[in-house]
Design a protein that fits this description.
Blueprint (H helix, E strand, L loop, with lengths): L27 E2 L5 E2 L15 E2 L13 H17 L7 H6 L3 E5 L5 H18 L3 E5 L8 H14 L10 E6 L24 E6 H10 L5 H18 L1 H8 L7 H9 L1
Parallel strand pairs: 4-5
Antiparallel strand pairs: 1-2, 3-4, 5-7, 6-7
Length: 262
């Protein structure tokens, strides 16, 4: 899957941390109010772990959900939001081929999360197929701009260390995702808001192929998605727009989808 949504304000598909996303890199406040920084040398060796295909479920999101329910909730979001709303025109193909893989990381150990992200990056490079989602239901769920951004920055910094640059990229999805300049209530933020804090691993080759198929301009997907969300908000209101983006069926939403498609 080239991207759940190739979603940024620029024509490039590279999701460079700090350029498109709101937050600070490599720093985060922990529970005692101090700042910590994780250096490359402290990342544990990459250990290959099992990957599981994603299933189906209900949209009840809690940080104490069991792993199977986390996977199921994420799958429901992909099917009912990403695919059904056509936010990514390439997602259905990967879904039908069972090439969407997920890993659930419990707890808030930054080193373990970064190691798992790099692990999945290596798997995607070696296998040459599919896309990975690293779902962290316990980690930084109420804070997009702090530790979540720190981990994203650290993982990106380590791509070069493990010869992964040019092979994969990491896209952020979070319940409180915020594009720089949009403000917390910006409707465009909904494109990257997921049930749980999630890191999406994309293969560069697949992204490039997908972008070529739409004339080399990934911003067309972004513009269509924002137009759809703005229309939902204008015609149905923000509350119902939020319901739609949680995967709920709302009256008249299908008519709007048809109009945007036309």
């Amino acid at each position: 899957m080239p991207s759940l949504f190739i979603s940024n304000h620029h024509t490039t598909t590279t999701t460079t941390t700090g350029r498109f996303f709101h937050g600070r890199l490599n720093k985060a406040g922990n529970n005692n109010g101090t700042l910590r920084k994780l250096h490359r040398k402290s990342i544990p060796p990459i250990i290959l772990t099992a990957i599981r295909n994603m299933g189906t479920t209900t949209p009840n999101y809690r940080d104490d959900d069991e792993d199977d329910l986390v996977i199921q909730n994420t799958q429901t979001w992909i099917q009912k939001v990403v695919i059904d709303l056509n936010l990514c025109p390439f997602a259905e193909k990967s879904r039908s081929r069972s090439e969407i893989f997920t890993s659930v990381v419990r707890g808030d150990d930054v080193e373990e999360i970064v190691a798992t992200i790099l692990d999945q990056c290596l798997l995607r490079k070696q296998s040459g197929i599919g896309t990975s989602l690293i779902v962290c239901p316990d980690f930084s769920r109420g804070d997009f701009c702090g530790e979540y951004m720190e981990v994203l920055g650290m993982a990106e910094d380590n791509l070069g260390v493990h010869d992964l640059e040019g092979h994969v990229q990491i896209a952020p999805f979070h319940p409180l995702f915020e594009f720089s300049g949009s403000g917390i209530e910006g409707v465009d933020n909904l494109t990257n808001r997921s049930p749980y804090p999630t890191f999406h691993i994309l293969r560069e080759e697949e992204v490039s192929t997908a972008v070529r198929k739409i004339g080399g301009d990934s911003s067309r997907i972004w513009q269509r998605n924002v137009s759809l969300l703005q229309t939902f908000e204008e015609e149905l209101g923000r509350e119902k727009t939020d319901m739609i983006m949680r995967g709920e069926e709302v009256e008249c939403m299908r008519e709007i989808l048809r109009k945007i498609k036309e």
